[in-house]
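[job 4471] stage=fold_predict status=RUNNING
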Amino acid sequence: MTQILSFGKKSPKVKKENLIRGFFDVFRSQDKFTRSIIVVVLLIVASTPFIVANRQIFTPKAQVPPAFINTIDQLIATRPDHANLHAVHLPDLPGYPMWSAYSWGKHGTEDNKTHGSGSVNLWLAMLWDQSNLNRNPNVKINIRRMYGYVLNNGTWTKIYDGLPTWYVSTVDTGCCYTDLVATHEADGSLSFVVPKNLMLHMSTPAPGLRISGSQAVVSVVEARLLGTAVDIASSKLALSAGADYRDAAGNGSSIVQSGFGQGGQLTADWQPYNMISTNLTDAQIRANPPPGFLQVVTASSPTPTLTPKPTAITPTPPPVAIDSDGDGCPDVKELGPDWHRGGQRDPNSRWDFSEMPVPAISATNWNLPVDDPRRPKFDHVISAADAQAVYAYVGTRKGGPPNSRGFSYDTNYGYKMGLTNDPNFTDGMFYDRTPSTDSVQFWRTGPPKGAVTESDASLIFSIFSKGGSNCK
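[job 4471] inference complete, writing structure tokens
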């Protein structure tokens, strides 16, 4: 057999094998420390391209913001019948009927509650605080959802669920519309630049849901503000959800308001802004709530027995929580680590948990029956309702006359109701606070100063807007 001989050359494969074998022999001949250094250098060399290119072995994903909870109690608390104040002080602009209607300080002032055949549409309005007029807010309103329901013959039907399709800026929601340009954000939401001194008005497609009648209408808008922390903190803008009835063709000339919602202040966080218009009682709404509203189980709710017990056991009653300063928050919670749960407070300071009777104490509600939801009471929570109650008393002072809303600092209906045992504790003192002496622990409010001002309401609202406090 013929053999092919090669002289003076080695094949590339042999060279490669000899090179690798030679390197391995040299590597093995080194001491342990030197071998470790060689391994580290080789790993650094191999990983350098990945480091420079910032290559990753995972797929980054956007952070999903935590969802808020919208409860049936939150919805009921803002129903027109409760006549709650707006979270901001709306201006009264002569010649602009819608501004004037909103600025009465209540909501649902055009509430018709029932309607015949036709259609129903959802809308929203962004409103200004009096102190913010004539300044550029440098913020954008961000809207991710508008939805609502109508109740007819005991059945809730969805009116709409999506984004507004008609959006304008206007001096008044009844006229003079200028189209707005929407920015489509990466999360699918819409944002709009807020122009100076102008309302923003938006609605769902018309005609809306065809109806033959209604027992209740619910409108909800999920929104927030975009901008720097400084601009958002200084911009006092409110959002109201609303709804209107129209004829079957959806003609604008046929509009009859169903209701407009309480103006809630816009913040950097996603929040729901609710409106319910109905002639049903609170109990009837709770018994048949609209879809998506969480039913909160309270201490008075019956607890079902999941597993039958052969013998009845008498439970030991829980120990009574000690509340040394009588501010509505037990000592054990005030000494806790979480100020949202009542903690980081002094159990001997009467004023650092801003527990206030809600709704605001007045000459017309203090003597209502005890079980009437309109009767003021402590709820052991610092929420938007507390800020609204404070707003009712803004402009009152010790020894002064009633404010423009008819509230007086020196009345003592709270004492007559049993909310305090001190006959010298006036109603204005419930809603009068001084700011915390600790700028970090801003929630630790101080004692009354003898007058209720807008700074009191802003102080309570700042606590609520950052999560509030709950001592239940």
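[job 4471] summary: Residues 1-16, 50-67, 296-320 have pLDDT under 50 and may be disordered.
[job 4471] exit 0
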